[in-house]
C-alpha cells in the first residue's frame, strides 16, 4: 500500500482515507543529535521529508495537508536556531514555489503575520497569491501558528463586531467562531500525525482536531517518508470514528 494504486486510497464513493491530514513535524533536533550534527542539519533534512510528504499526499487521496512548521512558542528557542528556521522557510518558498505551482498545489498559510520579518510576510503572500486558483492539494503551512492565539483572535474579532452592533452575543456559536479562525473554509483534520514519539498537540489545531484521529510515530521527522505516511493512513483507515454517536451496525460498515 505504498502508492495511490490501492483503490482504498482514491477519493470516491465509500472512500475511507483522510481528506485532511495535519502533521506535527517533530524530532529534527534529536535526529541531528543522534548523529553528532548541529540541530540545523536536522531541520535541513526535515525540509526534504516535508517535500516527500507533499509529493506523496495526493496519491493517498489527501486533499489538505497542514504542516506545523513553527509554533508561537518556538520563539523561545536560541536566537540562532530561530533565525535558521526563518531562513529555511524563505529558502523553501524561493526554491519550491514554482514546482508547487506547476503541480497545481494551492498554498495557504495560517498563523500570525504581524511579528514576522517583512520579507517573510511578502514571500508567504506571494506563495498564496500565485497558487490561489490551483485545484490540487491544498498545502497549509502553519507558521508562527498557535491554536490559543488563533482562538483568542477569533474571539476578539467577534467581540468587536458585537460592540459595533453588527452581531449579537447569541450569534456567537461554534460555527461562527470557526468562520473566524485562520482555517475558515478548510475542513477539520481527519488525521493528525506526530513524529518523534511525543504524544501531545503542542498548540496545534486544538479547536479543529476535536474529532481527529491521532497517530503518533516513533520516528524522527527527517526519517518520515511515503511508507510512513502510508502506515499512518492505513492505521487511520482501521479506526472507527463515532463523533459522539454510536458504532455503526456491522452490516452498514462492511456494506453487505
Ligand atoms: C521540529 O523538530 C521542528 C520545529 C519545531 C521547528 P524539533 O526542533 O522540535 O526537534 P526536537 O524535538 O528538538 O528533536
Ligand atoms: C511542535 O514541536 C512545533 C512544531 C513541530 C513546529 P515542539 O518541539 O516545538 O513541541 P514541544 O516543545 O516538544 O511540545
Ligand atoms: Mg520538538
Describe the secondary structure blueprint for this structure.
Elements: E1 20-24, H1 28-34, H2 39-56, E2 64-71, H3 79-102, E3 106-110, H4 118-131, E4 138-145, H5 147-163, H6 174-179, E5 191-194, E6 213-216, H7 226-237, H8 250-254
Parallel strand pairs: 1-2, 1-5, 2-4, 3-4, 5-6
Helix pairs in contact: 1-2, 2-3, 3-4
The structure holds 3-methylbut-3-enyl trihydrogen diphosphate (2 copies) and magnesium ion (MG).
A few lines on this structure:
The protein contains 8 helices and 6 strands, in the order E-H-H-E-H-E-H-E-H-H-E-E-H-H. By secondary structure, it is an alpha/beta fold. Strand 3 (106-110), helix 4 and strand 4 (138-145) form a beta-alpha-beta unit.
Walkthrough of the structure:
Helix 1 crosses helix 2 (39-56), helix 2 (39-56) packs parallel to helix 3 (79-102) and helix 3 (79-102) packs parallel to helix 4 (118-131). This protein has a six-stranded parallel β-sheet, with helices on both faces. The chain is built from eight helices and six strands, in the order βααβαβαβααββαα. The radius of gyration is 19 Å and the shape is globular. The protein starts with 19 loop residues before the first strand and ends with a helix. Helices cover 40% and strands 13% of the residues. It has 256 residues and is an alpha/beta fold. It binds 3-methylbut-3-enyl trihydrogen diphosphate (IPE) (2 copies) and magnesium ion (MG). Residues 25-30, 70, 74, 85, 196, 221 line the site of one 3-methylbut-3-enyl trihydrogen diphosphate. The site of one 3-methylbut-3-enyl trihydrogen diphosphate has 11 residues, from strand 2.
Amino acid at each position: 500500500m505504498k502508492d495511490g494504486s490501492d483503490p482504498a486510497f482514491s477519493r470516491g464513493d465509500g472512500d475511507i482515507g483522510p481528506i485532511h491530514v495535519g502533521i506535527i513535524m517533530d524530532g529534527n533536533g534529536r535526529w541531528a543529535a543522534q548523529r553528532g550534527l548541529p540541530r540545523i542539519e536536522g531541520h535541513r533534512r526535515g525540509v526534504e521529508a516535508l517535500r516527500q510528504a507533499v509529493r506523496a499526499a495526493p496519491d493517498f487521496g489527501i486533499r489538505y495537508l497542514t504542516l506545523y512548521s513553527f509554533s508561537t512558542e518556538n520563539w523561545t528557542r536560541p536566537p540562532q536556531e530561530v533565525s535558521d528556521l526563518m531562513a529555511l522557510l524563505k529558502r523553501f518558498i524561493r526554491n519550491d514555489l514554482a514546482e508547487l505551482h506547476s503541480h497545481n498545489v494551492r498554498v495557504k498559510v495560517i498563523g500570525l503575520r504581524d511579528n514576522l520579518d517583512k520579507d517573510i510576510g511578502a514571500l508567504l503572500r506571494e506563495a498564496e497569491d500565485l497558487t490561489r486558483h490551483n485545484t490540487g492539494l491544498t498545502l497549509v503551512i502553519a507558521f508562527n501558528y498557535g491554536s490559543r492565539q488563533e482562538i483568542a483572535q477569533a474571539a476578539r474579532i467577534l467581540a468587536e463586531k458585537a460592540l459595533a452592533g453588527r452581531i449579537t452575543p447569541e450569534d456567537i456559536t461554534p460555527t461562527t467562531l470557526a468562520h473566524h479562525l485562520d482555517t475558515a473554509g478548510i475542513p477539520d483534520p481527519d488525521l493528525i500525525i506526530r513524529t518523534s514519539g511525543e504524544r501531545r498537540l503542542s498548540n496545534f489545531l486544538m479547536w479543529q482536531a476535536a474529532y481527529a484521529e491521532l497517530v503518533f510515530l516513533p520516528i524522527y521527522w527527517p526519517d518520515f517518508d511515503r511508507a510512513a505516511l502510508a502506515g499512518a493512513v492505513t492505521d487511520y483507515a482501521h479506526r472507527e470514528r463515532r463523533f459522539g454517536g454510536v458504532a455503526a451496525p456491522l452490516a452498514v460498515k462492511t456494506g453487505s
